[in-house]
Design brief:
heterodimer, A: Arc Repressor Mutant, subunit A, 3-stranded antiparallel beta sheet, B: mainly alpha, 0% strand
């Protein structure tokens, strides 16, 4: 499992908890992966949109430009389940070796 | 600093990304750039947009841009003094790719490219690429007027020349000698200073219009697709300048009389009409 897959898993996990504002998603991942460039994380987020795993919509706001929110699609839920399964299998395999 | 960074990011995004994705990306980055901590780790706008760029669609756009720019620059450049070899090079290159010599088609060399450019820009910007964004820049009507006036002036001069060549020739010095088939000196290429001015105006005016059309092309992609109207009208001006130049500088013109010029003028009026209609359609 590559770091790219891990970041995608985190993005899908956050989206599975509820619709998210793009900036909020990036800010949270910045704290988890401080060494990864925002542009790379954002490219993965846009990639998920392009694959049909997430979609964007304009949220209602009072004054100022409308905020764009991301939400998970059915295809995204399937991808989330698949990545989560791979991550758990990897974590168990590593734990079996005694790596804490 | 933040405003400047956002402006550069927006320009880069509009240049590299497909139009349907640009607004979403810009909306997201407007907030990200506002966060001091996140902005510090963003890097240059080009580095931010590069990972988001779909390579295939970006390369298609680059190919379209190069082709449209060449449609303006090649005829205008090759019309400049001593630059005819550019057209020769283009002929050689196209002959390598296609098994036909474009020069030997019964289309004027100066006509084919600008006409393709007008059609290509109309299809690309009117029906395919980008949306209108807010109020139209005041530079667009001003530059449209400049290209329109130049086209109209060239066309009016052509009309005047073809309807009354003698009167027109008197304005430009030695031209009656060509019309009457009188050769001056061994080459017959001696022309008056005023005739040089006419040729220079067509050459450099056409070149300036070609530069304007490339500038408008960049603006149409990075700012507002309605800039493509300036590209189309400037290209019409290039076309008319190049056609007129080809005819005016043709030394054999006197031997074939003037009757055949009337249909040619009608064709040029159709070109100009197509340019004005195309520009209007792009503005809508």
């Amino acid at each position: 499992m590559l770091k790219k897959d891990l970041i995608e898993l985190c993005l899908l996990h956050l989206l599975a908890q509820g619709d998210q504002y793009g900036y909020e998603l990036l800010r949270r991942l910045h704290h988890t992966f401080p060494d990864t460039q925002e542009s790379a994380v954002y490219a993965l987020l846009r990639g998920l949109c392009r694959e049909g795993c997430s979609e964007q919509y304009a949220g209602a706001v009072s004054g100022g430009p409308a905020r764009k929110y991301y939400r998970l699609t059915e295809q995204g839920r399937d991808k989330y389940a698949a990545l989560l399964g791979r991550w758990q299998a990897l974590r168990d395999a590593v734990a079996e070796l005694g790596v804490e | 600093m933040k405003k400047d960074y956002m402006a550069r990011l927006e320009r880069t995004a509009r240049w590299r990304l497909p139009p349907e994705e640009v607004e979403d990306v810009i909306a997201d980055y407007r907030d990200i750039v506002g966060d001091e901590e996140l902005r510090r780790s963003l890097g240059k706008p080009r580095d931010v947009i590069a990972p988001l760029t779909p390579q295939k669609t970006y390369h298609i756009w680059l190919a379209v841009f190069i082709a449209l720019a060449a449609c303006a620059l090649l005829p205008a450049l090759s019309a400049l003094p001593g630059m005819w070899h550019l057209w020769y090079l283009f002929r050689r290159l196209t002959f390598c790719v296609l098994p036909l010599d474009v020069y030997n088609l019964s289309i004027s060399s100066a006509t084919a490219l600008p006409f393709l450019g007008i059609a290509g820009a109309l299809v690309w910007f009117r029906w395919k690429g980008g949306g209108k964004r807010g109020r139209l820049s005041p530079a667009v009507p001003a530059l449209l007027a400049a290209a329109g006036v130049w086209s109209a002036a060239v066309l009016a001069a052509d009309c005047f020349w073809m309807r009354d060549p003698i009167a027109f020739s008197e304005m430009w010095g030695q031209m009656p000698l060509y019309f009457l088939g009188v050769r001056i000196g061994p080459s017959g290429y001696m022309v008056s200073r005023s005739f040089h001015i006419l040729l220079g105006a067509l050459e450099w005016g056409g070149f300036a219009m070609a530069l304007l059309s490339v500038f408008a092309l960049v603006k149409a992609r990075t700012q507002d697709r309605r800039w493509a109207a300036v590209y189309i009208l400037a290209l019409t001006a290039v076309l008319l300048s190049a056609e007129s130049l080809a005819l005016v500088s043709n030394m054999e013109i006197s031997e074939s009389g003037f009757e055949w010029l009337a249909p040619t003028l009608r064709v040029w009026i159709v070109y100009a009409g197509a340019g004005f209609v195309g520009a209007g359609a792009t503005l809508c």
